[in-house]
Amino acid sequence: MLFRSMDDSGALSDLARIFSDEKIYVQSLNAKSVEHNRALYDVVLEVKSKKELNDIISKIRNLKNVNKITRL
Q1: How far is C-alpha 56 from the chain's CA centre?
Q2: In the CATH scheme, what is the code of domain 2-70?
Q3: How does pLDDT run across 10-54, given as a tens digit for each residue?
Q4: Measuring CA to CA, which residue among 41, 46, 47, 29 is closest to residue 65?
Q5: Where are the domains of the chain?
Q6: Burial class (CB in 10 A: 0-12, 13-18, 19+), 45
Q7: When comparing pLDDT for 62 and 8, which is higher?
């Protein structure tokens, strides 16, 4: 999954909390700052079902300053 948000110092900890609370295994996570004070996150997760993935995407969408999420 690939998503963009405003570059916020607490964003990565918010993501980690969601993954931990939902007991989601993170295979990889790459975060980088890009133009105009934004951050780009490339995340590979191991989920049990499409429903679980959709639930995680929904929780990430509810985070402050998340602009766009794309499933890859």
Answers
A1: 8
A2: 3.30.70.260
A3: 888 899 999 999 999 999 999 998 888 888 999 999 999 999 999
A4: 41
A5: 2-70
A6: middle
A7: 62
